[in-house]
Amino acid sequence: MTEIVGSTNSTETIEFFFDPMCPWAFQTSLWIREVRKQVPLDIKWSFFSLEEINREEGKKHPWERQWSYGWSQMRVGALLRRESMAALDRWYEAVGTAFHLNGRRTHEPDTHRKLLGELGYSPELLDEALDDSTTTEEVHADHNRAVVTYGGYGVPIIVLPGDHALFGPVITPAPTGAEALRLWDLVRGWSEFPHLYELTHPKTEEDHRHIGQSFDTYLRSRAWRTIQNPAP
């Protein structure tokens, strides 16, 4: 009998790899949270470093710098994850909203300290995370697992039930309501084809304008240029 792909009543667990500075991962996180409102879904948030995967030869690794835009923020996230996955969930949503939607430069330490205070934490939590070498070990472990186990080369990466990893969905704006659930059903259906590797929508000039408009706040707030090594 052929299994019908669709929403289930039992709780499913997925893993979601993200870098807080990635606008695509943030849009996908908005979508998966919308899905979670409608179906029983447990999200395990994990870290992935775009700074490391796209590091230029001869440049320092992000953990070798006193402060790295994404990596150092994820060390704060690692400390919060020890409290609970819900704490990390709340932090990532707050960081993403502040940076990608409101243009607050959370990649600057003082701004991040203020955000932590707004979340009810001590602003010094950032310094505590940076003083604890095991936080960088946790970020490193997540990143390496994404690369070695799942062949990760960017985010978002979603690991579906059955340990089937997908890059994406890469979409903006994030679907809501019934559209969010429809996309979830389509994404889950992909796992029925273990050797289906790519399905890409080529970007036209109109698509690039749409992306530029969607990510205008991000493009004005970031402090780096985009570097992307070719996907394997």
Helix coverage percent: 40-55%
**Shape estimate:** globular
Q: Which spans have pLDDT < 50 for at least 5 consecutive residues?
A: 1-6
Overall radius of gyration = 18 Å
Strand order in the largest sheet: 2-1-3-4
CATH structural class: Alpha Beta
* Total beta-strand segments: 4
CATH superfamily: Glutaredoxin
The CATH topology is what? Glutaredoxin
Rounded to the nearest angstrom, the distance between the terminal CA atoms is 36 Å
Q: Quickly give the CATH architecture.
A: 3-Layer(aba) Sandwich
Strand content: 5-15%
Class of secondary structure makeup: alpha+beta
Order of helices and strands: EHEHHHHHHEEHHH
Number of helices: 10
Number of domains: 1
What is the topology?
Layout: E1 12-18, H1 23-36, E2 41-47, H2 50-53, H3 69-83, H4 85-101, H5 109-118, H6 125-131, H7 133-150, E3 157-160, E4 164-167, H8 177-190, H9 205-214, H10 216-221
Parallel strand pairs: 1-2
Antiparallel strand pairs: 1-3, 3-4
Helix pairs in contact: 1-4, 1-8, 3-4, 3-6, 3-7
Summarize the structure.
The chain is an alpha+beta fold and 232 residues long. The chain is built from 10 helices and 4 strands.
Describe the structure.
- The protein is of the alpha+beta class.
- The chain has one domain (12-221): Glutaredoxin.
- Helices cover 50% and strands 9% of the residues.
- It has helices spanning 23-36, 50-53, 69-83, 85-101, 109-118, 125-131, 133-150, 177-190, 205-214, 216-221; strands at residues 12-18, 41-47, 157-160, 164-167.
- Strands 2-1-3-4 form a four-stranded mixed beta sheet.
- Helix 1 packs across helix 8, helix 3 packs antiparallel against helix 4 and helix 3 packs across helix 6 (125-131).
- The longest helix has 18 residues, at 133-150.
- The termini are far apart.
